[in-house]
Amino acid sequence: MAPRKLAAGNWKMNGTLASLAEIDQLLSDHLAPGCDVLICPPATLVHALAARTQGKIAVGGQDCHAKTSGAHTGDIAAAQLQDAGASHAILGHSERRTDHAETDEQVRGKAVAAHEAGLVAVICVGETEAQRDAGQTLDVISAQLAGSVPDCATAANTVIAYEPVWAIGTGRTPTNDQIAEVHALMRDRLSARFDDGADIALLYGGSVKPGNAAEIFAIPHVNGALVGGASLKAQDFGPIIAALAVT
Ligand SMILES: O=C(CO)COP(=O)(O)O
């Protein structure tokens, strides 16, 4: 079994009910068989999006709590996401690691909770610019993988997204060789640790656009993308999905 190809959109803190019209557009224009499509809208829109798309695309949350319920104001349990129609949860995004000081250990706990609720955990890793400049990229990625990915991970319940922090929302992307180096490292680490680690899908994220998607998808061990800004408009996300489907 080869890793499944996945085009994933992370809407971050963008969108209202009116934005779901973009998804209608996407469904009518572009739904290419040949890759899976996931949209992770703000939590307020998970249920409406799932109801509207009826399984034609997957819907995910952008975070979940490690506990199943309780006194955690403002947080969302994995089972609540699942109840609202989500099948995935992005975990450990660099914006969560920065804005909410999430640690690898906390991300791992969230991933276990996601798995227990039947969700696929989309676990994010990535170096800062200072870490890259200091030659620490591979060590940082190795440590984040070791710390954030739980022992219960399988190819069926886990996706890893490599998102260099300095490439997110900046219009800057690593060179193809830099992406290839990190993805090869991730494949090695996961294959060494998990029986089906060779089949865990590896996404690249950070300034993926219609104009660079095909080139990025041609890089070995890149099985899809986690797309921020360009996932908000069907006219941008559609061509990215199409590029992945034919890779
Ligand atoms: O953070 C990202 C997806 O999770 C990437 O965001 P951009 O595609 O806007 O750079």
UniProtKB/TrEMBL annotation:
Name of the gene: tpiA
Keyword Cell inner membrane: no
Subunit structure: Homodimer.
Function text: Involved in the gluconeogenesis. Catalyzes stereospecifically the conversion of dihydroxyacetone phosphate (DHAP) to D-glyceraldehyde-3-phosphate (G3P).
Catalytic center residues: H93, E163
HAMAP family: TIM_B
Name of the top EC class for this enzyme: isomerase
InterPro entries assigned to the protein according to its UniProt record, in alphabetical order: Aldolase_TIM, TIM_sf, TrioseP_Isoase_bac/euk, Triosephosphate_isomerase, Triosephosphate_isomerase_AS
Protein name, UniProt field: Triosephosphate isomerase
Reactions catalysed: L-erythrulose 1-phosphate = D-erythrulose 4-phosphate; D-glyceraldehyde 3-phosphate = dihydroxyacetone phosphate
Record-level Gene Ontology MF annotations: triose-phosphate isomerase activity
Protein family membership: Belongs to the triosephosphate isomerase family.
Location in or out of the cell: Cytoplasm
Organism: Paracoccus methylovorus
